[in-house]
């Protein structure tokens, strides 16, 4: 440390005319060299450094402005998207309500159509039943009539003998003969 202080003190005591030589004190010469280099860098590099820092500052400010503009654009897009979403939600609610109304209308129409169809089917069923009843009644009547006729024929055949048969035929012939004389 004493060498460093001595080197600064010895700077003021240089002989005005003298010999030129090398200073072999490494610590003293390094400090001097460093201070000279730093001084030159500060003096000449000050403008370059200021320019670099100004350029960097401008780029940062430009980036910040661009980011702010992008942020504002994104906020505007978000607001537009929210407005569209609200509009779509309102339309969806309208469609939903219209859909429910349409479904209710279709349901009522379907119920009415089904009721009409059931009424027609009930009428058709009643007509079919009535027709089948009439047909069954007619069949029973025919069967009863046939059985009565067969019973009457059996009864007549059993009651009529040949003499009674001949007398009935002669009486009918006499009636026909009398009718023919009247018509002539």
From TrEMBL:
User: Per the record, GO CC terms?
Assistant: proton-transporting ATP synthase complex
Q: How does it sit in the membrane?
A: Single-pass membrane protein
Which GO terms label this protein's molecular function in UniProt? Answer: proton transmembrane transporter activity
For biological process, the GO terms are: proton motive force-driven ATP synthesis
Query: Subcellular localization, per the record?
Result: Membrane
Q: Which InterPro entries does the UniProt entry name for this protein?
A: ATP_synth_b/b'su_bac/chlpt
Keywords assigned: ATP synthesis, CF(0), Chloroplast, Coiled coil, Hydrogen ion transport, Ion transport, Membrane, Plastid, Thylakoid, Transmembrane, Transmembrane helix, Transport
Tell me which stretches of the chain form a coiled coil.
64-98
Can you tell which superkingdom this protein's organism belongs to?
Eukaryota
Q: Where are the transmembrane segments?
A: 26-49
Q: Which family does it belong to?
A: Belongs to the ATPase B chain family.
Q: HAMAP family attached here?
A: ATP_synth_b_bprime (MF_01398)
The name under which this protein is listed is ATP synthase CF0 subunit I
Gene label:
atpF
């Amino acid at each position: 440390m004493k060498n460093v202080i001595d080197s600064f003190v010895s700077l003021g005591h240089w002989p005005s005319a003298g010999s030129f030589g090398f200073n072999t004190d490494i610590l003293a010469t390094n400090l001097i060299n460093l201070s000279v280099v730093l001084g030159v860098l500060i003096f000449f590099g000050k403008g370059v450094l200021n320019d670099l820092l100004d350029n960097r500052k401008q780029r940062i400010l430009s980036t910040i402005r661009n980011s702010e503009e992008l942020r504002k654009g994104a906020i505007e897009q978000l607001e537009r998207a929210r407005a569209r979403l609200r509009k779509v939600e309102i339309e969806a609610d309208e469609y939903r309500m219209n859909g429910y109304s349409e479904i209710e209308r279709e349901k009522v129409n379907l119920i009415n159509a089904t009721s009409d169809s059931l009424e027609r089917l009930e009428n058709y069923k009643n007509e079919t039943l009535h027709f089948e009843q009439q047909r069954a009644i007619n069949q029973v009547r025919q069967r009863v009539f046939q059985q009565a006729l067969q019973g009457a024929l059996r009864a007549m055949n059993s009651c009529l003998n040949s003499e009674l048969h001949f007398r009935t035929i002669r009486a009918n012939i006499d009636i026909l003969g009398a009718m023919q004389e009247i018509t002539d």
